[in-house]
Design a protein that fits this description.
It comes from Mobilicoccus pelagius NBRC 104925. Helix content is about 45%, strand content about 15%. By secondary structure, the chain is an alpha/beta fold.
Length: about 350
């Protein structure tokens, strides 16, 4: 019979990790926790529950951390959970799957809380979390499992609190310090400015990230292949920092050059949606612009060859956002239709190693 394992990476979150472990303990053969610096008492508590706690070293390469945890597990099936997640239903489906030869990647439903509340009409998303032996992650900042096996919706359901996902990634202090040191030696270096802006954006410091993206835009020639990464990073940071006028100006300046980019169309939809949410008066034209932008993503499909491309923006992530748009508009049936469509696209869109947004 195939062996199964729970595989987690954490730097703490003791109570959350314990909840995740207890939810799956009866249904897996082992539980492997890669410990990136949790307090000793937390690690001791996890061992008491039955985990094998493996000491690890934190890295800015998120995929490397994931892969270290998978390397430590000796299982045919690996169930990957974040600290804030737990098994909610699908126990029989999980049991049946792990008895099978590991010849597919299992997609699980994730029900995320909104405002701390789980509701039946909140959209549900699929993610590859049941990985056969040998499947590994790629992507330094936004890791994604890479595989050429079929993906199968297996009927396992996870619930997730609306806390910051994978907080073991969150300590970017060292990487940021090194980038500042490098910029002191090479001020105005376009690549370093982009790396620092990305680091700040991933840390949700959008105002600071915006300043460095602005500098990177000035330093990066329009013919440089990294220009796309700078533009989409800047558009995301400007929008999330509330610098909507700058975001609109950037979109106007770059839209023609990147009309083949699902990432730009996706972030344009995000921008129009943010403008809609912050508008003091009804703005049906913004609803149309957001919807049209995300539909454009689906027309374009995935474009992994573009620098800075995020896997899913040309498929399931755009469909998820359409689901959220219609949820906000009070159109529950249409919202769920797009949530279901996102699940279908997740099944049919192969993983190519790009980051997941």
């Amino acid at each position: 019979m195939a062996r199964s394992a729970l595989v987690m990476v954490t730097r703490g979150e003791a109570a959350l990790v314990e909840r995740a472990m207890r939810s799956v303990r009866p249904f897996v053969d082992e539980m492997v926790i890669l410990d990136l610096g949790a307090p000793a008492e937390a690690a001791d508590a996890w061992r008491e529950i039955g985990a094998r706690v493996v000491p690890g070293q934190w890295s800015t390469d998120a995929a490397a951390c994931r892969n270290a945890a998978l390397d430590a597990a000796d299982a045919d099936w690996n169930l990957v959970l974040e600290a804030e997640e737990w098994l909610a239903s699908g126990i029989d489906a999980l049991r049946l799957l792990v008895e099978r030869p590991p010849e597919c990647v299992g997609l699980v439903e994730i029900h995320r809380a909104i405002g701390g509340v789980h509701e039946a009409d909140h959209p549900r998303y699929l993610a590859p979390r049941l990985l056969p032996r040998g499947v590994r992650y790629e992507g330094a900042r936004h890791e994604e499992p890479v595989f050429d096996l079929p993906a199968e919706h297996v009927g396992v359901v996870l619930r997730s609190d609306d806390v910051e996902a994978a907080r073991w990634r969150a300590d970017h202090t060292l990487a940021e310090a090194l980038l500042h040191q490098a910029l002191a030696v090479r001020p105005g270096d376009a690549g370093l400015l982009l790396d620092l802006a990305d680091e700040l954006r991933v840390s949700a410091r959008f105002a600071e990230a915006s300043e460095h993206y602005t500098a990177a835009l000035l330093a990066t020639p329009t013919v440089d292949e990294k220009r796309h990464a700078v533009v989409v990073g800047a558009l995301e940071a400007y929008t999330k920092a509330g610098r909507l006028r700058e975001a609109v100006a950037l979109l106007d300046a770059e839209a023609t050059r990147w009309q083949h980019s699902p990432d730009l169309a996706f972030l344009a939809g995000d921008l129009f949606f943010e403008m809609l949410l912050t508008s003091a008066v009804p703005a049906p034209e913004l609803v149309t612009l957001a919807e049209t932008s995300w539909l454009r993503c689906l027309d374009l499909g995935e474009r992994p060859g573009l620098s800075g491309a995020v896997h899913g923006r040309g498929s399931f992530l755009a469909a998820q956002n359409l689901g959220v748009l219609f949820l906000v508009l009070g159109q529950g049936e249409e919202s769920q239709r797009w949530a279901d469509r996102a699940g279908e696209l997740r099944l049919s869109t192969p993983s190519v190693g790009g980051p997941l947004g």
